[in-house]
Amino acid sequence: MTQKELEHQLKVMHKEAFLWARQCCFYDSDTANEVLQQVYLKVLEGRAKYRGNSTVKTWLFSVVKYTAIDLLKKESKFSSLDMADISRLPNDTSETETENYEALLKLLPERQQEVLLLVFYHNLTLEEVAEVLNVSLGTVRTHYDRGKKKLKELIQDKYAYGR
Amino acid sequence: MEDEKLMKEFFNNMKKQDEESIEIPAFPAKRKRKVRLSLVFSSLAVVVLAGIGYALLPSEGKATENVAEMSIIIETGPSLSSDYLIKEETTVSEWESPTASLINDF
């Protein structure tokens, strides 16, 4: 794939890449934008090379993920999602007009969130998720099953106790 | 299967909400290289200084003019004859001390 073709692909996938970057940055749009700028710079400067071993989308999502990790580490904004406080349930928040999907997802461990988002939001296969997150397929399957179970419980709780 | 359906519904709704509420920044356009103004000005300054320097240097035409104004007059006369200037010198082997006559041999 030539550099021009790659740039075209990046342009086509810009929206999805931004949304994924945002999800990697705890749903913060400004940080996501910064991450994406760095990703494009890496690609233009040849620091991130697409070798054709996977789909462009899988490769791009992987670059976004690891750039986000680096940036968040630098900015010391990193905080474990595992520590999410149960009191932040959407039921308790004042955001009643719109569904707070992000708040509900934040109640899951980070890996489970990522796997579910990549599968159901970004339509990746489990194999592709394993490539993006650089983990084994078995690990992805475990997070997928646990994540689904946990999210199902959270959704049911939410509707059981009302908004 | 029911779980899958529930998940798909949840994430589809999340997508819809994101599309309505999240503003996607524009894809960064390729920028043409910005020409740094300081670089332009410094280059211009160098060119101007070089021009001034060149203008201040005496040109070849002027130099020949000055040379033309100079005149060297060579005069020849009896006192400057070549015979007077070139003296005949003796070699070391023929040299004799001017006070040699004062030495007495007994």
UniProtKB/TrEMBL annotation, chain A:
Coiled coil: none annotated. Pfam families: Sigma70_r2 (PF04542), Sigma70_r4 (PF04545). One of its GO terms (molecular function) is sigma factor activity. Residues 28-77, 105-153 form the RNA polymerase sigma-70 region domain. GO terms for biological process: DNA-templated transcription initiation. It comes from the Bacteria. Keywords: DNA-binding, Sigma factor, Transcription, Transcription regulation. SUPFAM superfamilies: Sigma2 domain of RNA polymerase sigma factors, Sigma3 and sigma4 domains of RNA polymerase sigma factors. Belongs to the sigma-70 factor family. ECF subfamily. PANTHER family: RNA POLYMERASE ECF-TYPE SIGMA FACTO, RNA POLYMERASE SIGMA FACTOR HI_1459-RELATED. NCBIfam families: sigma70-ECF (TIGR02937). This is RNA polymerase sigma factor.
TrEMBL record, chain B:
Keywords: Membrane, Transmembrane, Transmembrane helix. The chain crosses the membrane at residues 37-57. It comes from the Bacteria. This is Uncharacterized protein. It comes from Fulvivirga sediminis. The lineage of its organism: Bacteria, Pseudomonadati, Bacteroidota, Cytophagia, Cytophagales.
